[in-house]
Every structure is written in structure tokens, then in C-alpha cells.
Amino acid sequence: MRASEQEGAYPRPLMCREQWNSLDGTWEFGYDDADAGERDSWFSGSAAGGFDREITVPFPPEAPASGIGETGPHPVVWYRRRIAHGTLAPPSSGGRTLIHFGAVDHRAKVWLDGRLVAEHIGGQTPFTADVTDALRPDAAEHVLVVRAEDDPADLCVPRGKQDWQERPHAVWYERTTGIWQSVWTETVPGQHITDLAWIPDPTYGVVAEIALARPLTRPLTVDIVLRAGDRVLAETSTVTTGRRTRIDIAIAALRNGIDREDLWWTPDSPTLVDARVTVRDPGSPASADTVDSYIGLRSVGVGSGSFLLNDRPCYVRSVLNQGYRPRTLLAASGTGELRREVELIKAMGFNAVRVHQKAEDPRFLYWADRLGLLVWGETGAAYEFGTEAVELLTREWLDLVRRDRSHPSIVTWVPINESWGLSDIAHDPAQQQYSVALAALTRALDPTRPVMSNEGWEHTDSDILGVHDYTSDTALLKERYGDAAGFAAVLAGGGPQGRAVSLTERQDERFGAGEAPLMITEFGGLSLAGGDDDFFYTQTGSATQYAELLGALFGELRRSPLVAGFCYTQFMDTAQETNGLLFPDGTPKLPLEAIRRIVTGLPDEGAAGD
Hints:
Elements: E1 21-22, E2 25-31, E3 53-57, E4 76-84, E5 96-101, E6 104-105, E7 107-112, E8 115-121, E9 127-130, E10 141-149, E11 178-179, E12 183-188, E13 193-201, E14 205-212, E15 220-228, E16 231-240, E17 244-250, E18 273-281, E19 284-295, E20 300-303, E21 306-309, E22 312-313, E23 316-321, H1 335-347, E24 352-355, H2 362-371, E25 374-378, H3 387-404, E26 410-414, H4 429-445, E27 465-469, H5 474-481, H6 484-492, H7 505-512, E28 518-524, E29 526-528, E30 538-540, H8 543-559, E31 563-569, H9 592-600
Parallel strand pairs: 23-24, 23-31, 24-25, 25-26, 27-28, 28-31, 29-30
Antiparallel strand pairs: 1-12, 2-3, 2-4, 4-10, 5-9, 5-12, 6-11, 7-8, 7-10, 13-14, 14-17, 15-16, 15-18, 18-19, 20-21, 21-22
Helix pairs in contact: 1-2, 3-4, 5-6, 5-8, 8-9
């Protein structure tokens, strides 16, 4: 398959190779409730093991789209796929055959033809199996086997909204076990690109960071070409002698301060610069590795009480998206569904989305990049604090930051939400130190974006003071956020949801100096005629009452001289949580034009800017 055949289809959009083969589709599948599969060598061949049913990958077995739809707890599951030799043939001339996994929840082992080729921990992060040495050249087919382990009773495991109880309750949903993002294969040269990152500077150009598969035995050449449409913006060739190289690329067109903004990325004008990177050995042209990528030239930050985009205040109009879908749960049905979600969020008048308690499929971020939508990057939380929980969350979080750091749409990092996994942070110095340390570690890995030390309350060292406030009393919103004295009382008290907003003097000082702008990062939660078993924050009995209260809440926050942005809960009804602006089938609860007017406060579509 060629990467260009369907826009946004390649599972890793920031590092595309032209030739690849999807392994999504029908696999053999089996539950291993006795955890006997490894002992009994289920991985050993095409006839071994308890593969008694079929599953459609990449949908988890709990999802109806998988063809199974069993939601009970099964901590260990197995997958098997027979692959024709032509699809997975041994490469020639020292090349390597790779199998990529977008995400497998939570621990994975992978075998090819009975040989262990990969192990991975982290239910939201990608990994790669180099299967070259396991390929039998005389085989008519190859057998790929995956074992996934995800114990719902293990509260150390980052799980986000996946319920640890047998049935979903409150704001927690069905579990997602095993493979839930795409699996694909490609053949690469022996020396090839394994990681590519971009650090943009909209006044100068961009820095490329490139990692190679193995140490160099002789110098290689790295060619980079940047284009805006048919226009070449920059072209460089650099000799590298190490596995990791950093290349500064000046873009001459950015010197012109009058029209350089045409190249900048914003939600209203999401210009992307196409990039092609080739690593080659001048003495062996056939061994070159080429990947296609793209760059958004933009900067983000905070200052003077505002969120800054390209060094200018940008009022954030965000919506919370759970990323759970009725038929596929954490997974998505394909790139088209992800594109439609981004388009719908923008059509409602939002310029940002907070993907809540999960790391979304990279193709969602591709469409946010391409169509212009700010994204707050988050992760699923663990539910207890301890050595193993800290290790698992930190490792997975850092891998996610590395995966997503080159997406221009990602503008804020949120490693912790509402003290989940840090329930005693208000009085436990160790939990406070972890919150501070994880924020600092995130800034060390990526100093270009704001970072939240906690989201919603109990901040320790956040670049944005995010407050969660689910009151439906607009007079109370005005009292809290209408002036500095009102919010000072909030800071001094127990916080809107009964948890202190700030825990440290440093956080208070940063807010007071305008270094940490105030945003109401969860509010609303209105339900339209929800049932007795539904979860919501405020019930409304009719579309008229729903529209009036929705408009009043948005209006009060927009009028606040202190609030630099907001995030409404939520995009779509999800399972028993009926807080959405859409019903579960995607039907808007009000006409889209009405929602847009409420969100933006503007009378017509054309007036809605950043």
C-alpha cells in the first residue's frame, strides 16, 4: 500500500514511508483466563493454543466492532495471524522487516514463527518488532502471535476511564484489552530512521532531531527538503557521524516580517510545511531511507494572564472529548471517523479539544494538525500511588511526549488530572513532589509547551491554572470569576469542587504574576432529558431549557476579565455519561449553528476567530 493512497491512513503520520502493508483485519483470538498460554506454548505454531474464535483488529474484544463484544474481565488474551510469505518476505541487501504496533493494552509479547521478537509495557504507546532474524526463507507463510495482559484489578496500571469494577459506573466505561490501534509492516534498509522530531521557531525556521537504528560505521548524509506546496522553502544536506543528529534549518522566507505569517500555523490558518528526510550512504545509493513528514511553524506559551499562540493572546474555546465510541470503545473505526470528529468540533465553534484520560490515535492529531484544532495532550491515570505506579505512569508518559511532540496541534501537556492516582496530594509530600517532578521532567523533554502539574485542582507548579467548576448557577460563576476579589476568595477557600485550587506558594505567585493564566478547564456537564441511571452534573427537561442554560454558562465565562479560556464537558454522550453536546449517535442536541453561537458568542460563522 502507498502512503499517498488515502490521506491520513498511515498509522504514524509524522514519519511515513511510501510502501507498507496493514495487518488490520481478521485474526484468530483466544482468552487465557488460566494464564496457561506461555506454559503450553500457544506461540509455537499455527496449530497450537486456544485460539477458538476470530477478532477484527484493531478493535478490542470488549467492543462490538471486534466481532466478540464480551465485556467481562479477561486479564490475558492471545492473537494469531497467518501472513503470506510475500507480505513478510526476508528483505534483501541487509534490509530489515519491521512490524509496528500502534497500541496494545497493557503488557505485550510478540512471537513470529515461534520466536520471541518483542516485549512492551504501556497500553497507549507504540512499539516495533524487528522480525528479520525470525523469518524462515523457505516458509510459505509466517505465524504472528501476540499475548496481551491487562489486569483490571491492578490499580498501578495507567487506565484512564477504563472501569476497574465489573460494570461501568459514574464516569468510567468499558475496558479496552489488547490491540486497539493499527498493526502494520514495512521493509526498511539496515540503517534507517527510527525517530524524527521537529522543533519549530516561527521567526527563524526549525530544528530537526533524527535518530538512526544503529551505530554508524562510516559517515552518512542527511538530506532534508521543506516545501510549502510546490515552493521549496529550504534544502539542506548534512554529514552525520552518530546515531543521533540535530540539524538547524533556516527558512529564508521567515526573514520577511511582513508576510511570514502566511507560513504560520493557527486554527484559522493551519498551514503545514511538507518535509522529506533521506538518510543515505554516498557510496551505496540503494541503501537510502526516506520518510515524509510535516511541520507546523508556530509557538505556544503563557504570559500576562493569557495563553499565547505565536506570541499573541489566544482565547481558548475547548471541549472535552472522552475518545470512547459506542462500537469501538477506545479505538476508532478509521481515519474518516477521526477527521469527522475534528470537523464537528470546529463546526461547533471550538478552537481546541481536551482529549480526556487517553492518548488519542496519532491520526486524530494528524487531522487536528491539518484542519486546525488546538489539542491538550493527556494520558490515562493510574488509581493508586506507589513505586510501581510512579514507574509505569512516568515511563508511559515520557513515551507519549516523545511520540506526539512534533504535532503542532498539541499545545499543552496534562500528565495528571484531578489528583487521580495522587489522592492524598493535599497532605502527602511524596505525592506533591511527584506532581512537581513529572511537570519538570515534561518541560525538560519539551520546553516549548505549557505543562500542568495537576488539572482541575491541587496545583503544585502548573503553567496554566486550570479550575474545574460544575456549578449551574451563573450568579455563582460571576461571584467567583467576575473580578479579582471574587477569585481571591476561591483561592483562599476550598475550591469550587471542594478541593483547594493551589497547594504551593510558587503556584500562587505564578498566578499572581500572570505567569499561569486562569482557565475553567471543566464546566457545564448539562444533560438533556437523561435517565435515572445516567450520570450528569445538571439535568434539563427540554431543548429550550438546555439551550438557555448552556448559553448562560458560556456567556458568564466569556464576560469574566480573568478567564483566559474554557473547556466544556463534553463533546458527546458517552455510555452512561450524558453530558454531551451530541447524542451517542453523533446527532447534535441543538442545531450546530445554535451551538456555535453559544460557544463563540458571535452572531455569524465568519466572525469566529482565534
